[in-house]
Amino acid sequence: MEKITTSEELKAFVQNADDKLAIVKVSASWCSPCRTLAKIIEAVEPEYAEKVKFADIEADDISEDFMTELNVTNIPVLFFYKNGLMVDRTVGMIGREALVNKIEENYAK
To answer: Is pTM beyond 0.85 here?
Structure first.
């Protein structure tokens, strides 16, 4: 999973996703729901390698301005990008089935 720390890195990641769905997780190492979501993503990632690129933003490693730009007030957050545009986002913990449904739904956009 690619690590992102700046707005420029996020833009490059999204643009370089080509026809794949780009999913960016914003989380923190001290956040229990974030760690659980990370394990779910790790389990799902190999199954969707042909359709999805995953990236991670560690909330404690980025500037307050970047957090404000992302409009993140709670974690974990998942951003879904397709063809360079944000098409969906989730806030809070989601389970495996919900993540797979979001992948399928947003990949089809």
So the answer is: yes
| Two tokens, residue 45 | 């990632």
The residue type at 17 = A
Averages of pLDDT over each 10 residues, the chain, 109 residues: 93 93 96 96 94 95 90 94 94 96 92
The question of whether 31 is a catalytic residue gets the answer yes
The H-assigned helical ranges of the chain are 7-15, 32-44, 64-70, 96-107
Q: Which of 34, 55, 72, 75 is catalytic?
A: 34
- Rounded Cα distance between 3 and 10, Å, is 9
CB 44 within 8 A of CB 96: yes
Q: What gap in Å lies between CA 4 and CA 12, rounded to an integer?
A: 10
Active-site annotation holder among 28, 31, 67, 87? 31
